[in-house]
Amino acid sequence: MKQFKSPILWLIIAITAVAIYALKPKPNTAGAGTPIVSVTVPTTLGANAKMGQGAFETHCAACHGVNAVGQVGIAPPLIHKIYEPSHHGDLSFARAAKFGVQAHHWPFGNMAPVDGITDNEIISIITYIRELQRANGIG
Ligand code: HEC
User: Fold this and answer.
1) Which value, in Å, is the radius of gyration of the alpha carbons in the chain?
2) Rounded to whole angstroms, how far apart are CA atoms 42 and 12?
3) Residues 6+ apart with CB under 8 A from 29
4) Cβ(132) to ligand 1 under 6 A?
5) Which atom of ligand 1 approaches the CA of 107 most closely?
6) What would the pLDDT profile of 48-72 be if each residue is shown by its tens digit?
7) How many Cβ atoms sit within 10 Å of the Cβ of residue 114?
8) Cα–Cα distance between 34 and 70 in angstroms, integer?
């Protein structure tokens, strides 16, 4: 094992390790978590929509972002033409929360069912999303 005492060998090992690390492909997470759209929250949110806002922040915002602006690499904005009532009716929101969603519009993967959410919370979240959509010219 004489050769392991050679400083040259250690140097080569060190350079190889640095090179392997430097050349290793890194996942492209540039921009992950940044909002996808900008959303204006109206001062006129109704009482039920305000409850929905709280429930949304508890159950949905970790992925869809506060005020449903979406997050790059994580989940889509819900204040978006794709989710206006004529394309994604209220039932599709209830279904998403209860049963999850198979990825089909975006490259973010599936949405798992949301644990521990009540029907009343879902109803108020839908009211909140629809009021936000209308205030931002959608639907
Ligand atoms: C763990 C992350 C995560 C959470 C938490 C989450 N979602 Fe999602 N959601 C996603 C992803 C990802 C998609 C995109 C699926 C696709 O590609 O169409 C999605 C899609 C949706 C859709 C579109 C459904 C369809 O039919 O296309 C709705 C509506 C939705 N989410 C509502 C909600 C609501 C309401 C909550 C909270 C109660 C919530 N999501 C919580 C990740 C999440």
Assistant:
1) 23
2) 63
3) 73
4) no
5) 17
6) 999 999 999 999 999 999 999 999 9
7) 18
8) 8
Q: How many whole angstroms separate alpha carbon 36 and alpha carbon 65?
A: 9
Evaluate whether 100 touches 110 at the Cβ level (below 8 Å): yes
Single-letter code of the amino acid located at 78? L
Q: How confident is the model at residue 16 (pLDDT cuts 50, 70, 90)?
A: confident
Pick from 72, 75, 74, 64: nearest CA to 128: 64
| Residue in 57, 58, 64, 93 to alter for ligand 1 test, most ligand atoms within 8 A of Cβ | 64
The residue whose CA has the least distance to atom 6 of ligand 1 is 60
Q: What is the pLDDT of residue 23?
A: 75
pLDDT band at 19 (very low <50, low <70, confident <90, very high): confident
86 neighbors 139 (Cβ within 8 angstroms): yes
For residues 53 and 102, the answer to whether their CB atoms sit within 8 Å is: no
Confidence of residue 112 (pLDDT cuts 50, 70, 90): very high
pLDDT digits (tens, 9 = 90+) for 84-100: 999 999 999 999 999 99
